[in-house]
Amino acid sequence: MTEPTADRVRSAQRGDPAAAEAIVQALHRPVIATIFRFLGPRWREDVEDLAQEVFLKVFRALPDFDPARAKFTTWVYTFVRNHCYDVLKKKHLPTASLHAVADGEPAHDVADRRELVPVRDAENQELGRRIGEALALLGEDQRMVFVLREYEGLDCAEIAAITGVHEGTVKSRLFRAKQTMRQQLEPWLRAGA
Amino acid sequence: MIPHDGAQRRDAGLPAAPDFPSEAEWLDLPPPPIAPDFVARTVAAVLAAGNAAGPEGGPSREQLASFAPPEPSPDFVARTLQAVRQDRVRRWRELLARYVAPEPSPAFVARTLRALADQPVAAGGAAAAARRRRWTGPLLAAAAAVVTAIWLLRAQAAPPLEARLAGAVRPAFAHGYAAASLPGLLAALERDADPAALPAGGADGTWLLLHRRRR
Fold first, then answer.
1. Are A55 and B84 a contacting pair at CB < 8 A?
2. In angstroms, how far is the first alpha carbon of chain B from the final one?
3. Which residues contact A46 (CB under 8 A, 6 or more apart)?
4. What is the complex's ipTM, to 2 decimals?
5. Share of chain A above pLDDT 90, in %
6. Where a domain ends, among A49, A69, A93?
7. Where a domain ends, among A35, A58, A93?
8. Taking a C-beta distance cutoff of 8 angstroms, is the pair A127, B64 a contact?
């Protein structure tokens, strides 16, 4: 995500339409991408509407943004994260998490891994689909941390500011998310190697 | 493997290698010169290796990128900016509406006018105003009747015309028709401007009496 300059943000706070357009132009792709990767492919049709709602919230709160407290992109990601959580809450979508399995119960049932070996000519597309499914298996908190870290390239301090948890908690969630992703995608990763 | 033995190096065409230091010298050997960018190069190499292999053996960045988001619509930015503008206008209108008095409804206006009409103008209240309105007509009618009666009564008591004319005529002319001489004397006294002037009613015994005395 390209960080808008402080002057541009100040101009947008004063109501400059050109500055507002520049901000939307710079941020709309990463916002859409983050929402899509967090919510999953079944939200493909609604992702632009959700991104637009995020931008509405951003511009409503823009006069209150203080550059001394946070980076502008970090602040925008906070809206993305909160809006995604609100969407899931409204839809009451269940999110399965391997860590939610109680002791003694069988772990998540995974299909025969021999069948997961992809066909070479559709490997990339199939891998993308499998990554989406693996992400959907993560808990909301782990998924958000994984997407912000691995896809958007944010550091743990920024993710901690966005999610409102300690940096250690971010690292812990990230570690468990990577572990889960590795377990789910191991056949594909071996096939790709 | 590069040979260290002098003979093997000579056979391989390599220059003579320096002698190995002794065990005592080995521990005191100075460290080799380290390039200033060694640390940065090493970290970059580690990161590159980590990215290529993926986090802890997980999917690499290239593999993760295969899960690609949809391409935004060409008009997404324009639509979003328009939505932002409309949202701002709507929120301003809602804010201003809290501080702007609403237009009075027709029902409110009618109700207020009725209340003002029922409200009494002077002291006494609405009941007194109603009583006044009730008595005004009859009183006016009574007054008209009284005036008419008085006019009729005065008309009936009016004196005859000769008496009214006699009362309206000045004594200077009335004495000519008087049976006694007193009116003539009064008329003469009244003629201050020309006591000797002939009376308009013609000469008579009174004038002669007064004229003889003045002489």
1. yes
2. 195
3. none
4. 0.76
5. 63
6. A93
7. A93
8. no
H helical segments located in A41-166: 47-61, 72-91, 123-137, 140-146, 156-163
> What is the CATH classification number for the domain harbouring A115?
1.10.10.10
Among the listed residues A112, A61, A57, the one whose alpha carbon sits nearest the alpha carbon of residue A87 = A57
pTM over 0.80: no
* A46 reaches B (C-beta below 8 A): no
Q: List pLDDT tens digits, range A17-54.
A: 999 999 999 999 999 999 999 999 989 999 999 999 99
Dig out the tokens for B119 from the structure. 């409200």
Q: Do A131 and B64 touch (CB under 8 A)?
A: yes
Could you give the C-alpha distances from A159 to A48, B61, B188, in angstroms and in order?
23, 19, 138
Residue B80 forms contact with A (CB below 8 Å): yes
User: Domain span at residue A122?
Assistant: 96-193
Nearest-CA distance B103 → chain A (Å): 30
Residues A87 and A100 in one domain: no
Residue B66: which of A25, A55, A131 has the nearest Cβ?
Answer: A131
Q: What does the pLDDT read at residue B24? A: 79
CB A49 within 8 A of CB A39: no
DSSP label at residue B71:
P
| Helix axes of A17-39 and A72-91: crossing angle, nearest 10 degrees | 50
Do A78 and A105 lie in one domain? The reply is no
Q: Are residues A71 and A11 in the same domain?
A: yes
Q: Do A7 and A35 belong to one domain?
A: yes
| Same domain for A104 and A87 | no
- CATH code: domain of residue A58: 1.10.1740.10
**pLDDT at residue number B8:** 78
Task: Please compute the mean of the pLDDT values over residues A171-193 and round it to a whole number.
Answer: 82
Alpha helices in chain B (DSSP H): 6-12, 23-27, 38-53, 61-64, 76-97, 106-118, 125-156, 161-168, 171-174, 182-190, 205-214
Q: Do A65 and A133 share a domain, yes or no?
A: no
- The number of helices, as runs of H, and strands, as runs of E, in chain A is 8, 0
Query: The tokens of A176 are what?
Result: 């468990």
Same domain membership, residue A62 and residue A48: yes
Interatomic CA distance for residues A6 and A58, integer angstroms: 16
Residue A73 sits in the same domain as residue A164: no
CB contact under 8 A, A32 and B69: yes
